[in-house]
Fold this sequence. Notes:
alpha+beta; eight-stranded mixed barrel; 4 helices; 27% helix; globular
Amino acid sequence: MRYTHKEGLRNRRTGGRKTTTLLAVFLLAGGVYMLLNTLSPMLPPSADQAQATAKRLTAEQPKANENRIYIPQINVDIPVVLANGNEAAALEQGAVHRVPTNGDPSAGGNFVVAAHRFNIGLTPGATRAKSPFYHINLLNNGDQIYVDYEGKRYVYEIYEKDLVPPTAVEIEKRTDKPRLTMYSCELAGPAAGREVVYAKPVGTVAWSNGKPAVETL
Length: 217
């Protein structure tokens, strides 16, 4: 085969087109993946997911060394942790117990819990896991929330929802009556405000022969 100047030039151009095509495909695939990753938390929880969370509540007793919050309606089943001076790191683990001195399920007062609304991860599954309160706006009055605290399971019922500015620090103040205050930032960002859910305690879960039953207050 003889090599000519024109053939060499043509081969170089063909190689360049292949490189450009591969780069375009790579960028397109990366864009689609990033889009799926970003949109993944928007998918509403399925009935099967809600049932799985509810089933765990009846199958597993609370552990003395692990505090958790369960919201079957929006498929939330995450630890409740203390910030210990590093709230950003604590939020990566689940929900943060804000201002513990202002209340908790055992002592009463205002038990304040906050978690990420949207926090992107490396995969769609990781993004959903890092955005536990994404669907906080879907909760309604009458929905129940379960909290494991120091080995005991508490049951709360939502009675009010609100949207407040980020300066509304009064939502975390101690209250005379026991209350659960649960919040996360607006999807537009922290500066846009906070979605807040207020719930009242309705009882605790007692276990007899391995089966749970709610003891109302």
